[in-house]
Write a structure and sequence with these properties.
0% strand; mainly alpha; Serine Threonine Protein Phosphatase 5, Tetratricopeptide repeat
Length: 113
């Protein structure tokens, strides 16, 4: 008999699924109801090392990115290949997500030449 997941694990799995699907209403509901905590917001999916924030960026879902960042998602967490959410958004032309990421934490100006 398989053990039932705890409420936190269940909320984490639901959050990964909702962000993968781009379901903003479900993301809002999960974040409002669950005590997900920073470690749960930054949990990686079993394949690819993507966090809920990366799924939101992949979907170019500005509102989902904003919700996750406001809840404490780590905007600097990298994939196994070393990409941050901002680098991924930029390299994959995810302009709405990139705007939300930059609004949350602007990139520093390059050093003068």
């Amino acid at each position: 008999m398989k053990a039932q997941p705890s409420a936190t694990e269940s909320a984490t799995e639901k959050l990964l699924e909702a962000t993968y699907q781009g379901n903003v209403a479900k993301i809002e509901k999960i974040l409002a109801e669950a005590k997900t905590g920073e470690e749960k917001l930054n949990i990686e999916a079993e394949s690819g090392g993507f966090t809920p924030l990366f799924f939101a960026v992949q979907n170019d879902n500005k509102r989902a990115v904003e919700l996750l960042l406001a809840a404490g998602a780590d905007a600097k967490k990298k994939t196994p290949t070393g990409e941050t959410p901002q680098a991924f958004a930029r390299s994959h032309s995810k302009f709405y997500a990139l705007q939300a990421l930059q609004d949350h934490e602007p990139e520093p100006d390059p050093p003068p030449e």
